[in-house]
Amino acid sequence: MIDRTGLAEFLRVRREALQPEDVGLPRGHRRRTSGLRREEVALLCHMSTDYYARLERERGPQPSEQMLASIAQGLHLSHEERDHLFHLGGHTPPARGVSSAHISPGLLRVLDRLEDTPAEIVTELGETLRQSRLGVALTGDNTTLVGPDRSLGFRWFTDPSARRLYAAEEHAFLSRLYASGLREIAGRRGPGSPASALADLLLERSAEFRELWAAHEVGVRPKDTKRFVHPEVGALELHCQRLVDPDQAHALLVYTAVPGTESAEKLRLLSVLGTQPLR
Q: Which residues form the HTH cro/C1-type domain (predicted)?
């Protein structure tokens, strides 16, 4: 059963404890609000200001599990705080572990400070959970995808358009990389895991994947330099740095160019151009 008073008080306290710079928002001038404004939290949680305000006023319908998950992420809650939020909202908290989509506050804080750098947070299956502004400009918005299409490795073998963003001479290596990586994860997580289910689906749909899977290759690792072909700025060579949250099996990927190179100039141009529809 929902605890409306407890939920309202918890949301208000957490909102007032956060500052705009804590969540990657500009502070602006003449700011008198203690903590974040309700409209700022609503923006972070991808919901209307009216809906969020009603929760703080102990009104409105019981929030769904999806709404609570969005609020937990928007307010940068820890796993303990997220679970408490779900209990207050009258729901059972989601399971923790490697299959969880809840990003740790620490990883989110790092991403929030990388708006002028291509960056994304991904799961071990290559599902994009969050992107920086320039990350969206580089690869498109991958957070809106659903089902198995959320996984880049799945799209690589089932959707030809997924390969357009990568240099053609890298395609064969990337195919080996995704098949090898999925085999390692499926072996580590075991039968019945999301990784195993994804492999079964790819075995049904992709002849190329079936051939690579039959080779039982493991141990293929990503190259430090990734070669992109962007529809607006052309070829880029970017170095990829990875920060891993071992508890969640999430990774923050940060893409940078060597200063003074053509790729660095193209990144600056991409920042000016902003996001482009890549699909």
A: 35-82
Q: Decide: 100 and 78 in contact? Cβ < 8 Å.
A: no
What average pLDDT does this structure show over 119-141?
95
* C-beta atoms surrounding 158 within 10 Å: 16
Is residue 216 within 8 Å of 249, Cβ to Cβ?
Answer: no
Which DSSP state fits 229?
E
Long-range Cβ contacts of 10-13 (<8 Å, 24+ apart):
10/84, 10/85, 10/88, 11/41, 11/52, 11/55, 11/56, 11/71, 11/75, 12/56
Give kind and range of the element (H or E) at residue 13: helix 4-17
- Answer yes or no: are the C-beta atoms of 112 and 133 closer than 8 Å: no
Q: What H or E segment, with its residue span, contains residue 129? A: strand 128-131
Is domain 4-88 classified as CATH 1.10.10.10? Answer: no
Token pair, residue 271, equals 């920042």
pTM assigned to the model: 0.83
Q: Is 82 exposed, middle or buried (0-12, 13-18, 19+ CB in 10 A)?
A: buried
Torsion of CA 152, 154, 156, 160, to 10 degrees: -120
- The model's pLDDT over 157-197, given as tens digits with 9 standing for 90+, comes to 999 999 999 999 999 999 999 999 999 999 999 999 999 99
CATH code for the domain defined by 105-273 = 3.30.450.180
